[in-house]
Amino acid sequence: MLIQPLMNENTEIDWQYPNPYLTDINVSPQDTDRLGHTNNVRYLAWLEDAAWGHITELGLGWDVKEALGRAMAIVRTEVDYLAASYAGDHLLLGTWITSSDFKYQSTREFQLVRYQDHKVVLRAKMQFACIVLKSGRLSKMPVEFVTAHRAGLEAAGVPC
Questions:
Q1: I need a labelling partner for 26 at 20 to 30 A (CA). Which of 49, 84, 131, 148 fits?
Q2: Mind listing the pLDDT tens digit for each residue in 34-90?
Q3: 33: in domain
Q4: What gap in Å lies between CA 47 and CA 118, rounded to an integer?
Q5: Range of the domain at 144
């Protein structure tokens, strides 16, 4: 289950960028694989859910994308698995928009941290391309996309 976390003000996590969009995750037994740790498919689903939540918070919810006939499609995902997580673990997933050409593409990075010991479980990066919803063809970003991406970059402390 994904919810926005209630952060303890004493919690000091070493995030790779400032102002992460945070998703709170409690690993359930259904999230684990035969080896007893979190299945990599669950990690990918959590990354995608966090990306949707963040971009929606930046003003680009599905309703806006549908009205504009455009969306940002994932074209590449890189995941570095740094530690295992298990049923019962409480994880915090931070995400940021870290680059954009404000025309066709953007990049988003993720950092997944085990809350109990602040261990980084994974780091990931997704690259996106703006597409026309009806055809799937590459498209220039509408101004609404540019505005949201600029706000995301500024929040992450990345020069625009």
A1: 148
A2: 999 999 999 999 999 999 999 999 999 999 999 999 999 999 999 999 999 999 999
A3: yes
A4: 18
A5: 2-155
Query: Domains in the chain: how many in total?
Result: 1
Residue 112 sits in a domain whose CATH number is: 3.10.129.10
11: CB partners within 8 A, 6+ apart: 115
Closest CA to 95 of 120, 115, 71, 124: 124
Distance separating alpha carbons of residues 153 and 134, to the nearest angstrom: 28
pTM above 0.90, yes or no: yes
Q: Quote the distance between the C-alpha of residue 38 and its chain's center.
A: 18
State residue 11's pLDDT score.
59
Q: Could you give the CA distance from residue 21 to residue 51 in angstroms, rounded to a whole number?
A: 9
Interhelix angle 40-57/143-155, rounded to 10 degrees, is 110
Token pair, residue 137, equals 């063809």
What DSSP string runs through 87-149? Answer: TT-EEEEEEEEEEE-SSSEEEEEEEEEETTT--EEEEEEEEEEEEETTT--B-PPPHHHHHHH
Enumerate residues 6+ apart whose C-beta is below 8 A from 117: none
Contacts of 125 (CB under 8 A, 6+ apart): 76, 77, 78, 98, 107, 108, 109, 110
